[in-house]
Amino acid sequence: MNDESHNNRKNDDAQREDDEVLHRDPSYFQYYSQLQHQQNMLQDFVRTSAYHSAITFNGSSLFRDRLVMDVGAGSGILSFFAVQAGAKQVYAVEASGMAKKMKVILDAAKRKGQGSPRNAYLADRITVVSSKIEEPRLLKEVPTVDAIISEPIGVLLVHERMLESFIYARDKFLRPGGAMMPSAGTIHLAPLSDAALWNETITKARFWQQNDFYSVDLNPYFAPAFEEYFSSPVVGCFSPTTLIGDSVVHEVDFHTVTMAELKEFTIPIEWEIKYTGLMHGVAGWFDLAFVPPVSSLHPGTQPSATYMSTSPQSTATHWQQVRMLLKQPLAVNAGQIIRGSIFMKVNDQRSYDISAKLIALDAEESALVSNETLATMLDTQKSRVRTALWYLHEQIYNYAYVGEPSDMARPEAANLYLPVDSLLAESALPAGPQGYARTQTISSVEAVGGSLTDFVVNAARNTVESSNSPMEH
Ligand code: SAH
Q: I want to staple 154 with a disulfide (CB 3.0 to 4.6 A). Which of 67, 160, 265, 401 is the partner?
């Protein structure tokens, strides 16, 4: 190897690192260049109205006369909301062919002729930047801004790894004290009992257990097929009655999270199990918070907080929820505690590898166990430990759930058994909605402990729709 080629090689390597996000992208941006996929997101009423409220309600405090960046502008909808909220100039950065399409709507806003132009209020207020946000030339072309708006959210919050672009934009373009909208996301993980889903999945894998498929013995394929099915998260809505414990949460504060903290993180697990039955896997979803920091506001104004949830108790969104199955279900007793951890690490499929190590403990045992002992137990106690590895990009879709039947099934119908005390307590309490009763009210929000990222969204489930988009924003 001569020096020149060596240097070239070095440059190439550096370039390749810069292009870490670029190289895997053609099909990703091809997808987003199509209006039908932008439409799928616009039609998600929960999503689009949450952004609309978050931007509109902070119009006079955050957006009026301010410079704003829209990271991954797509159809331009968030940029348009920002102009409606009074933004002085919006830099709409978009890497896909949508950038060109957005110029069409902006040209129409300026067009003089018969009648008034469409969306005249947009004229001269939006600069379309047809590029990836990570493109170095943008550092010269785009000024520092007061607020960054973006919808960089995928399945389970992090799929698609676009949060990295959002954080990159923060580090390069946001003025100190500026606002990130959304301001935080929370991943929820909960224990799941769903025999029907487990059976459906093993049935698909067992196809490969035929001895005489057109005279071919398919059995050698069974092990890899089983592996594949049980490492694939199932995306779709499901009944909240399949959850057998409350979720644990992992909060990501978009104002402070570092790139390294996005690339791998551990979620400690501690689930109190409510029913005696079988745990078939882990269910996941996320919430979003839009709370501008006071430092980002015009002096003397107040922030307006907006929250949205994609939980199974909430109105369905195009992100739906995700379920990840154990290869072998875990028998649990009501009152036991599942301990352990779930580790999430980025992969080069614009997604995450998710590994779990869990153990069922009696409550008394859990209260006494040290971290070291727990680690040893996780490695040695095979019969009550389960490990799993799921690939968040290998998603299987399941749209079977269409909402709860009007007379809700009792937990026993799903082979879930309440402790006797709880069962008796159901009839001992005064009448009123509780337990399996349906809630049909509008979402409500409680801030917990005054923290900006600490929030709980209580939302009622209404009708459930499903989308068939393979990419989820
Ligand atoms: N903001 C729009 C679109 C959200 S979808 C809306 O809320 O409806 C995310 C968009 O970000 C896609 O159009 C995608 O092409 C774009 N995108 C993803 N990564 C990007 C990057 N690194 N730089 C610029 N645009 C990006």
A: 160
Look at residue 79 and tell me if it is in a domain.
Answer: yes
Tokens (6 digits) for 253: 């504060």
Q: Each residue of 172-186: pLDDT tens digit?
A: 999 999 999 999 999
What are the φ/ψ torsions at residue 292 (nearest 5 degrees)? -65, 140
Q: Tell me what pLDDT residue 402 has.
A: 81
The mean pLDDT value of the chain amounts to: 89
| 384 close to 365: Cβ distance less than 8 angstroms | no
Same domain, 207 and 177: no
Q: What is the mean pLDDT of residues 39-56?
A: 97
Ligand 1, residues 96, 141, 160: which to mutate, most atoms within 8 A of Cβ? 96
pLDDT at 79: 98
Q: Give the lowest-confidence range in 1-5, 186-190, 334-338.
A: 1-5
Q: Ligand 1: which atom is nearest the Cα of residue 73?
A: 1
The minimum-distance atom of ligand 1 relative to the CA of 135 is 23
4: part of which helix (H) or strand (E)? helix 3-18
Angle CA 110–115–121, to nearest 5: 40
Q: Let me know if 380 is exposed, middle or buried by CB neighbors in 10 A (0-12, 13-18, 19+).
A: exposed
Closest by CA to 233, choosing from 398, 357, 350, 344, is: 398
Which pLDDT score, from 0 to 100, does residue 11 have?
52
Q: Does 359 score more than 80 pLDDT?
A: yes
The domain of 327 spans 187-466
- Domain's final residue, options 156, 183, 210: 183
| Closest to 271 (Cα-Cα) out of 252, 300, 248 | 248
Asked whether the predicted pLDDT for residue 462 surpasses 50, the reply is no
Give this prediction's pTM.
0.87
Sequence-distant (6+) residues with CB within 8 A of 358 are 269, 330, 338, 339, 340, 385, 386, 387
Ligand 1 atom at minimum distance from 149 CA: 1
Domain count, the chain: 2
Amino acid at 382: K
Q: Residue 292's closest CA among 41, 45, 47, 60?
A: 60
Nearest-atom number in ligand 1 for the CA of 98 is 13
Which tokens belong to 434? 């509780």
Residue 471 lies in a domain: no
Residue-wise pLDDT for 378-421, tens only, equals 999 999 999 999 999 999 999 888 887 766 668 998 899 999 99
How many whole angstroms from 397 Cα to the centroid of ligand 1? 23
